[in-house]
Design a protein that fits this description.
The chain is α+β, with helices and mostly antiparallel strands and 469 residues long. It is 18% helix and 34% strand.
Length: 469
């Protein structure tokens, strides 16, 4: 078993995560465990995973060791039987995985391959190795025989390639099938990839297109069954059992409904941002809604770390505290997030961050132009990176918004409440109307348990209801 934990002074990274991973044998003292890998203090963390792989009629164990250098970059090593670590020749921002005899590579950035001397030498020595050059786009999912890769081959099978309005949602492997969910225009399209006699085939799976989907193998080393989690803005999460090769699913369980969704409607819209880019957003409207510019409306956004906000999942707090009480709720899929893959994220980082703000403002203006609401009834909400978002746009365009909920200035290993405190102090000095609440438990989650989370929801939505009605 591979163990990573706080082994004592100096064994954690500066971020507070394990810096050392050890290989422990059951029945022995943890203190005697063999050190497998040690990262550097400035790293994020390290980990090791042993994969139990069915290759033909054999079971093979392969171990990958990962060194998280930064939030988006890493080094991945293969730990051979004798304990030797071999670094995989992959881009620093790529993620590596294993399925059967295949190395799976998910790219964040484009990979422009060049033929190097080592690969060329291997190719000359082994006619079965293909060291051909090739360019692979950001957001692609690639596969190649692991042993051939380690021998120098780079002729990957492209299992998924992104497009301007589509991205890789998830991939997961059963015993004989690789499941891939493509998000196209923030709609789900699930496929099964199968590999037989060196040939890949693909089959479309009949699953709902809207809402969120997560797939989890029941036992990827022994079964083609997998769990499917389905949810959307109005339906609580349902769990079903599916089997690769079939569109039949067995309903197992579902969460209870926490609010009355009858009469509520979900619609998807889009608007062009300042530079012409199409920005999608989801709009949930109440029963009896009239497009008269007076609906109390909350616009929510995030726009960071390649995390998609669309499609929208079920939210008990939002539903009970806002939707059920007649409010309109809108979620914007702005750049900086992950709605359309790595390029969508990279379009709004560093010097391009203004694109996030322009996108969010464009959605607000569209809601007003369509007479969904008006500035007197429009509030904005966001947490963490979304808190930075709503703080920025409130300063950019204060005439568009009546109320702002800027969430989660609580302390963790990357965020400090000092910035929120300074802004609150400045607003007080300038005699602005301000309410400030700092929950000291729960870290960056903003709450330590469901009771605290319910209280936070009550504070936020009560404030919005008071200001926007």
């Amino acid at each position: 078993m591979y163990v990573r934990t706080d082994f004592g002074p100096g064994t954690l990274t500066d971020s507070g995560y394990p810096r050392i991973v050890k290989r422990w044998t059951r029945g022995t003292a943890l203190a005697s465990a063999e050190e497998v890998f040690a990262g550097q203090k400035p790293d994020i963390s390290v980990d090791a995973t042993q994969h139990h792989l069915h290759i033909g009629d054999r079971v093979v164990y392969r171990t990958l060791v990962r060194r998280g250098v930064t939030f988006f970059t890493n080094e991945t090593f293969h730990r051979a039987e004798e304990g030797k670590l071999v670094k995989l020749d992959l881009p620093a921002d790529a993620e590596a995985g294993l399925w059967r005899d295949q190395l799976l590579v998910t790219l964040r950035g484009a990979w422009k391959r060049t033929r190097n001397a080592d690969a060329g030498a291997v190719a000359q020595a082994n006619a079965n190795v293909n060291a051909a050059t090739g360019d692979y786009p950001a957001g692609a999912l690639l596969a190649i025989d692991f042993d051939r890769f380690m021998a120098g081959a780079r002729d990957f099978k492209r299992l998924y390639e992104p497009g301007p309005r589509k991205s890789l949602g998830q991939s997961a492997g059963t015993l004989n099938t690789l499941l891939v969910n493509e998000m196209s225009e923030v709609q789900n399209h699930v496929f099964e990839w199968s590999l037989k006699d060196g040939q890949w085939t693909r089959r479309a799976v009949d699953l709902p297109r809207d809402g969120t989907i997560a797939m989890q193998p029941v036992g990827d080393d022994e079964s083609n069954d997998y769990f499917v989690y389905l949810s959307n803005a109005l339906q609580p999460t349902a769990l079903a059992l599916a089997r690769a090769g079939s569109d039949q699913r067995e309903a197992l369980k579902h969460l209870p409904a926490f609010f009355n969704a009858s009469g509520l409607n979900v619609a998807q819209h889009e608007v062009r941002s300042a530079d012409g880019t199409r920005i999608p957003y989801i709009e949930v409207t109440p029963k009896g809604y009239r497009q008269n510019g007076r609906a109390p409306t909350i616009l929510y956004g995030y726009g960071g770390f390649e995390i998609p906000m669309l499609p929208r999942a079920y939210s008990a707090g939002n539903g009970a505290a806002w939707l059920e009480r007649g409010g309109v709720f809108v979620v914007a899929g702005i750049r900086g997030g992950g709605e359309f893959g790595p390029d969508w994220h990279d379009a709004a980082i560093k010097v391009r961050k203004q694109n996030s703000y322009d996108d969010f403002i464009a959605v607000a203006e569209d809601l007003i132009a369509r007479k969904v609401t008006s500035p007197a009834h429009l509030g904005i909400m966001g947490g963490s990176n979304g808190g930075l978002l709503v703080g920025a746009v409130a300063l950019h365009r204060p005439e568009l918004f009546k109320a702002v909920v800027c969430q989660v200035p609580t302390r963790d290993d990357r965020v400090h409440p000092g910035h929120a405190r300074k802004m609150a102090a400045k607003m007080n000095d300038q005699k602005h109307d301000l309410l400030y609440y700092e929950n000291t438990e729960g870290g960056h989650a903003g709450a330590a348990n469901n009771t605290q989370q319910a209280r936070m929801n009550a504070l936020e939505y009560t404030f919005m209801a008071r200001e926007l009605r």
